[in-house]
Amino acid sequence: MMFRIARSRDGRTITHYDLYKVDIKKGMTVLDALFQIQDRMDPSLSFRYSCRGAVCGSCSMLINKEPRLACRTQISYAKSNDMKLKPFSAIGETPAGWNPEVEILIEPLPNMPILKDLVVDMTKFYDVLESMKLWSDAEDGDTPRSQTPDERKKVERYVNCILCALCYGSCPVNAEKEDYVGPAALAKAWRFHEDSRSLEPERYTKAVKRPEGAPLCDLIMNCVKACPKGVAPGGAIRKLKNL
Amino acid sequence: MTISSFEHDVIIVGAGLSGLRVAIELCEKFDIAIVTKVHPLRSHSVAAQGGINAALGEDDSWEAHAFDTVKGSDYLADQDVVEILAKAAPGAVIENERWGTAFSRTEDGKIAQRPFGGAAFPRTCYAADRTGHNLLHTTFEQALKRGIKFYTEWFVISLVKSKDQVCGLTALDIATGEVHGFTAKAVVLATGGFGRVYGHSTNALINTGDGCALALRVGAPLKDLEFIQFHPTCLYGSSILMTEGARGEGGYLVNAEGKRFMEKYAPEKMELAPRDIVARAIQTEVLERRGFEDEYVHLDLRHLGKEKIMERLPGIREICIYFAGVDPIEEPIPIQPAQHYSMGGIHTNKHGETPVSGLFAVGETACMSVHGANRLGGNSLLETLVFGRVVGEKVGEYTSSAKQPDKSCVEEEAFKMREHLQTLLLHEGGDSTANIRETMGQTMDVLVGVYRKSDALEAALKMIRELKTRFKNVSVGQSDDKFNFALVRTLELENMLDLAEVITMGALMRRESRGAHWRLDYPQRDDENFLKHSLFTMVDDYIKTELIDVNLGKFDVKERTY
Question: CA nearest B240 in A: which residue?
């Protein structure tokens, strides 16, 4: 199987694509293929990784124009292209020379500055967690607080978020508006707002109402399609906008 | 002018649960920073599935938790340390609940608890099968709230000592390829385990034992490294963990003859016997030709029903579908044992102090020892949070009275490390990092695995020493300064080779079978000679070995049956 991989030695822009021939075994993932390239063909290829089990959220990238976790994407599945995202430039335009019949195309996650090859600068994505104060304020105490299974169920979907940023990379608004905090942060705000244990749920809704928050979302729902964990940030944002 | 060195009161290496909890303990009073090779949320704590133990139930007690832990450890755990762990457990769980962790709940709103291997009560608190994910994200949120300083994507290369006292470290800024010095009064190592020494491991690819190797090289002893936990149920092929919670919820282990074979090995506890016993049972079934394809057995969840699987084990189901093409609602899961946890680690006392002044360790990196020869499921998340706090307190005490560290030493060392990396990068024509790493992994899997014996261990030691020789001329290959992961993986390999040697030496030296360490040529536990911790210290360029006493006193040492 051939892999066509975006390269950027100095960051900022994709300067060219390199083509590699990877030996495929049954059960192999895209991440396995990237390691085969780094180990056997080209040690200069840079990409992030950690758990290889779809829980840490490190290996987000664009695989055949769809934002996916490389570790969770079987090579045999990479060509399925079933996400049906609303296109924007990074996922709508294909590089010259790419033959989707025989090549898997790997590019950095869109909407973040490229640092090197497939490594992107996630500073903005992380910084909003701090600027929006997305944490619990509970005071210390000696007993656990009560929460029923039904109350927990209201936040379960949102606590499953692994902050992999695939939603951020799939969002046409993030592509256009640099300041937009993105779907993950808004879903996380909703998680705290909905948590029966939160002392001051309004704090989180105030945080999302800022101009670069929920008002910027156009409910395009690419985030819902791209999320590997079923978090569906778009649903939470719709509710936030209706508050 | 660019900054060539950084200075803080305390530097913590590693941003998993242990490192974050230490930082939270210290951040109000001291200038602290965490140096971590991955973003904190990418740390391996995130992958812990099953749960965290605490005697919250009315019929349960910290004494019962402590007893189960000591018995599970095959009596090698230090009983005074286990006492701290079990007593502080409810507090640690409650603290994280109040910080926001969404634990699964009982109908009446209490934290739900599930049965786990080797435990007399359902003592394991959980957040579905994503407990580590929930605890890590919550604890990271609390670290953000406190404004803790992170150096993210920095790889620590060496610790620096001045007159027998640790005074800082040197680290590679992965983003730029530059090496800088960090001066500190105290350094806390919280770098997790070293599972990637093995080819088959449930661990994240980043679990390369960096902290243990750094400590060894600066003269701090390692302890009990031969005790490697092999998790019985890992997905065949990728070795991704299938939580013990799957058996806690009622899952069966079935061989190719369709039999629940655990009745032969642990008739009372069956599938919920401790991990070492279940791992050996599976290995024996496969070796005696009752496995599938002579490789694996089945973990069968089908009788639990769709609803229970979807509610309690959704993460497991997802992994099975995406990584093995198996839906556990419809089909049994192919599983085999794989390396899972490192009971051994940096030798510390119950406060996390190493014998080297100014150097502390906590969590899986450390060996205090709470897990002895075999860790019980649900005790490692607990260890990180309990001892993160305990060690943090001690580091604070130490730092308050520590003298100003020697900055010039750190700068000298950074200069030396820049030269060292330059030399390493210039090697040509040697073996590749990948070749050496693969041979190491296979050697450890085959020769230092679930079952061990003298001649295999001798062969392993010979091979690892040969690999160390080959590593001296390792070829990293052509790359760039920025995000040179080929270099990072080579430095990780150097760390792992040191640890592979010590694990194998320990396995050879321990001529008995205890907990996770099983010698076919010495199948009995030998309390007379080996109710001892093994200690490994680097002296010049050889490893000195010795045995030291275990802290007993609370529970009598007995035969361990389930």
Answer: A53
Q: Convert the pLDDT of each residue in B386-426 to its tens digit.
A: 999 999 999 999 999 999 998 999 999 999 999 999 999 99
Q: What is the reported pTM?
A: 0.97
- State the pLDDT at residue B177: 97
Which residues of chain B neighbour A115 with C-beta distances below 8 Å?
175, 482-483
Residue B44 lies in a domain: yes
Establish, for the pair of chains A and B, how many residue pairs have beta carbons separated by less than 8 Å: 171
Task: Tell me the shortest Cα–Cα distance from B159 to chain A, in angstroms.
Answer: 24
The reply to whether ipTM tops 0.90 is yes
Low pLDDT (below 70) residues in chain B = 1-4
Which H or E run contains B539? strand B532-539
User: Is residue B534 domain-resident?
Assistant: no
The two tokens of residue B151 are 């150096």
C-beta separation of B160 from B413 below 8 A? yes
Q: Which residues of A touch B323 (CB under 8 A)?
A: 27, 29, 53, 72
The residue type found at B67 is F
Q: What is the pLDDT of residues B179-193, one digit of tens each?
A: 999 999 999 999 999
pLDDT at B3: 60
Catalytic residue IDs of B = 275
What are the residue ranges spanned by the domains of chain A? 2-120, 123-242
Q: What is the pLDDT of residue B1?
A: 40
| Residue in chain A lying closest to B325 (CA) | A27
Instruction: Assess A145–B contact: CB distance below 8 Å, yes or no.
Output: yes
Closest residue in chain A to residue B47, using alpha carbons only: A55
Phi, psi of B220 (to 5 degrees): -85, 135
Residue B206 forms contact with A (CB below 8 Å): yes
CATH code, B183: 3.50.50.60
- Confidence (pLDDT) at A140: 83
Q: How far apart are CA A82 and CA A189, in angstroms?
A: 29
The reported pLDDT for the residue numbered A79 is 82
B273-288 b/e (C-beta count within 10 Å ≥ 16 → b):
bbbbbbbbbbbbbbee
CATH level 3 topology of A2-120:
Ubiquitin-like (UB roll) (3.10.20)
Whether residue B356 sits in one domain with residue B303: no
Instruction: Say if A28 is an interface residue toward chain B (CB within 8 Å).
Output: no
